[in-house]
Amino acid sequence: MSDFIHHLSLITHHYSFQNLIRFLEHYLIHVSQTTMPLYKWEGEQFRKLPQSSFDQERDFEDLLAKDPTILLNNEELLVISRQAKTAKEPKPNFSFKKKSLIKRNTEEFLPKYDLLALDGRGNCVIIELKKGKLPRKAIAQILEYAASVSKLSYTALDKLAREWFVSHGREYTSLLHIHSKLFEYEFGAIRESQFNSRQRLILISEGADQKVLEVVEYLMNIGVDITYISYLAYGTQDEILVTTETVLGYKVISEKKKHSYITGKRLTRDIFRDTLSKNDELKSVVEEFLKYLDDCGASIRNRINWLRATIGGEWWIDTYPSKRATHFRVNAHGDFTPEQIAECHANLPAVNSRKFGVSFNIASQDNLKYAIELFEHTRNIILEG
Asked: Which of 13, 75, 209, 281 has the fewest CB atoms within 10 Å, measured from its CB?
């Protein structure tokens, strides 16, 4: 154990939490990390991709807010808030009532956490992202955020989630409802009192810092649920490739798969068709699908990662092609009954019940035939409404 960890162990046993925070701030320093280059096969040779970076932290935050599964080995997370103010450790105001000591909180505020999410068990996941290397105060900050978030009741979490969903134009009923829907368990299986039983911390930085690794490893050893993730971005003209790895102590525990986000080129009908044209059996399915959208009078909108079809100004269908041209993925928007979801599982591949409706793959004429019945159901509801 290094002198650093030895001193940290001593101060943890003999001094207060605030002294621990000051100790961490004093000792954390930046240390560079050797990185592995990334190559892309182009025609007849490999091309080394230049290392890039996001212009601002919020650029990567934007992507994580939409899809945080890149963080924890594809574990699903429900984002419920972004950069909200958190209640500061209150100055205690004590009173006696029925021989019990009651602490009344006062409303003070700390700096903002980056993202707040929930895992499948209702635990809060606090995500702190830093562009470049982690500054000295990053671990101190996330520990303070965790202390504050630990005080949030189900009612407070429900309020944060409602504000988040409404601000993004998404339908919201209750936190219990959207949580059970996303994580696919029977409504009521998790009670309000079970939310926020534990806090999980995720630190993300561009590259890893040796001193930070030591502290994270130590905090894990004393029971803090903390994960340190380093990421690197590589740029091409049309896209940014992001690699992430979970780093604990001095060694890599697990390496995540690479994720690609198309940042400069929108998906068009032609790109959608050309991507899937490598599969002769899928060509006719794609053409019939696109013709169906046209015949329905759908408006096709080119988005950065997908094609969006709207009816009457309402979201209807999102779709994007698989890179290996084996299928195209469809997100069907709408309210579906458990019976309809069960039928989807019986007739379509890779079905997932989602907060917006249902998602699945289309890889054959039979898949498309059943999917069109589903599309018609939601289209008629939109037009009648």
From this structure: 13
What's residue 250's pLDDT? Answer: 31
Going from the C-alpha of 229 to that of each of 212, 235, 248, the distances in angstroms are 11, 20, 8
Quick: pLDDT tens for 79-89: 999 875 555 44
- Cβ-contact 126, 137 below 8 angstroms: no
Q: Which CATH architecture has domain 269-384?
A: Alpha-Beta Complex (3.90)
Instruction: Give the residue extent of every domain in the chain.
Output: 3-261, 269-384
Separation of alpha carbons 343 and 329, rounded Å: 18
Q: How far apart are CA 382 and CA 378, in angstroms?
A: 6
Q: What residue has token string 């988005």?
A: 303
**The whole model's pTM is what?**
0.51
With a cut of 80, say whether residue 39 has pLDDT above it: no
The residue type at 381: I
How does residue 355 score in pLDDT terms, banded at 50, 70 and 90?
A: confident
Is 166 buried (19+), middle (13-18) or exposed (0-12) by CB count in 10 A?
exposed
User: How many other C-beta atoms lie within 10 A of the C-beta of residue 42?
Assistant: 9
Q: Which 3 state secondary structure label does DSSP give 30?
A: coil
CB 330 within 8 A of CB 360: yes
Angstrom CA distances, 307 to 122, 301, 304, 347, 380, stand at 33, 6, 8, 23, 21
